[in-house]
């Protein structure tokens, strides 16, 4: 998996599991402040890991008509 798909996969699992967690805890719904905080944390960690992985690399220039990999 690429460095972008892993955090997005984790985020989608979290969003889908909020309903079940709220039900297990006896809440009417998952607290919005927690949801925003967890979502922000997942995305921030994903961006930082991606930046750390690509630090110091210079992208190769693309030729006209060449597909990106």
How would you briefly describe this protein structure?
The chain has helices at residues 5-25, 32-54. With 69 residues, it is mainly alpha-helical.
Core attributes:
69 residues; mainly alpha; 64% helix
Note the topology.
Layout (H helix, E strand, L loop, with lengths): L4 H21 L6 H23 L15
Structural write-up:
- The protein is mainly alpha-helical.
- It is 64% helix and 0% strand.
- It has helices spanning 5-25, 32-54.
- Helix 1 packs antiparallel against helix 2.
- It starts with a helix and ends in a 15-residue tail after the last helix.
Series of secondary-structure elements, N-terminal to C-terminal: HH
Largest sheet composition: none
Structural class based on helices, strands and sheet pairing: mainly alpha
Mean pLDDT: 86
Number of strands: 0
Oligomer: single chain
